[in-house]
Design goal:
elongated, 2 helices, mainly alpha, single chain, 57 residues
């Protein structure tokens, strides 16, 4: 979960720099990609933890 939060914070910072700084639009794109990767990671983490709990019962 810490990795997810770190990725989201990095995406926000990159996005803000990409929007504010002139000529650094690519940082906004990288921020969006990092945010999508964070969401995929969270989805995999939730799915994996759900399976683990079912096998314990």
């Amino acid at each position: 979960m810490t990795l997810f939060l770190l990725l989201v914070i990095a995406a926000i910072v990159l996005g803000l720099i990409g929007v504010v700084a002139e000529g650094l639009f690519y940082l906004l794109v990288i921020g969006i990609v990092v945010f999508v990767v964070a969401l995929v990671y969270l989805g995999m983490h939730i799915k994996r933890s759900g399976r683990h709990q079912r096998t314990l019962r």
